Amino acid sequence: MIRLIRPYISFTEVATELEEILDSGILTKGPYSKQLPALAQAYTGASHAFLTTSATTALTMCLKHLEVGPGDEVVLSDFSFPATANVVEDLGAVPVFADVSPDTFNMTAEALESRISSKTKAVIFVDAAGNPSGLERIKAVCNERSIALVEDAACALGSSVGKRKVGTIADFTCFSLHPRKLLTGGEGGIIATNNDDAAKELRLKLSHGADETMDFVTFGYNYRMPEISCLLACKQFEKLDTIIAERQTQMAEYTRLLEPLGFKAQLVEPGHVHNVQSVVFKVPKGVSRPILSAQLKQHSIETTLGTYCLSACSYYREKYNDVQPVAYALQETTICLPCYSGVPVAEICDAIANSLR
Ligand SMILES: Cc1ncc(COP(=O)(O)O)c(C=O)c1O
Asked: Domain spanning 11-237 has what CATH number?
């Protein structure tokens, strides 16, 4: 099977350190648990970075810090993984779905403006497939209105806008270390922020509410990543830029071969760097993505949809009846293609061309 992605880590790369961890008996809060946030901080340029168990818990922590709760609304990109809306729903607030650009797949400033109300407590911008296009326009709207911006950058570690890496632009940026991401710990998440006061509170909340003297000065949580997961992620940080460069080359090759067939690549606006977390194309008019995916599966090629239209998920559709047209069209017409070291791009594109005949 040609898989969608393969983690960029092998046993031999970590064998020595793995043995050391197991021999030491320090399976949590060890040296790699300290090294990983330091690497994330240095890499993104953010003032602070904290580990969590996932992007979902990272987003939840940030929304809790912002005191999002019943009576509040959170405007969010409608083209995303359901976790983006679930974290809002979980806190008793209302997710308000903002439509996205048919080209970049990201929330537009116009859609955001049209969905802001007196109840808006926060905005969640999603870098669809890792693409940060439009992030600064969303930040400008949030600044004007004094609304906090949380970035669901689950897919966007290594992407940047101009000279600024994702992690330094929104008020809070949440990354995922799930195995479909470029850098994985098996599971895991990272919060990056430049806000010193928020960092003080996040540090306490992520440590059961205890300060350095182990005085429990507030209540808190355990969202820690295990030491072995941190080791895996630390090792991949060393080669993250190489991984991204390779994926960008593979994306360019897909584009070269698929655009003549009528496929359209996700637009990355000038001045933005896309980490190519996912290779996503719009299929040509008249082509059914589900049928194409089924045909490729017969050739042992794994594909999936670009991502979900959240407002059209059964739960959200039934509760809010507020489906956003562009996000829905993208859910129906985008395809995510395999990308990893050694992926046979030409073979996959040949299989696609044959399926269209
Ligand atoms: C945009 C987006 N947000 C949130 C998540 C959830 O990430 P995690 O599995 O780390 O909780 C994902 C996972 O794929 C995602 O793509």
From this structure: 3.40.640.10
